[in-house]
């Protein structure tokens, strides 16, 4: 029994270490999304984080399209973040102001480490089945650990518009 527990512990530790230090080609490709900040810039009053959302300009009716949301840690500080499995939830609103889709996650907490000057990027596929112009934005909700206590933070991305038509 003891050998089994030791073997299981070693396997879990190896998986944890392998997941923390692997090369991520998607992260490298998304690096272009991170805003460039001068080295001597002053940190934002809201903290060292910024958020960004990438939305296509057009899509066809009921055609899948991908939203890319990014949480940027612009500081050199490593933070312990607690959030849902997905940091962002996405809101889609029609031209009358009615919510068409609100994409959220279940309330289970995930704790992860975010190194300084890194990003958390999330990809979400969705579709809209009616012609029109839609407003899309995302909200990041998470907590960071400072001085042993968690501090709740909420960031909203810029609002983007997408045209849904018969042909993309």
UniProtKB/TrEMBL annotation:
Entry keywords, A to Z: Signal
Signal peptide: 1-23
Domain of life: Bacteria
Name this polypeptide is given: Uncharacterized protein
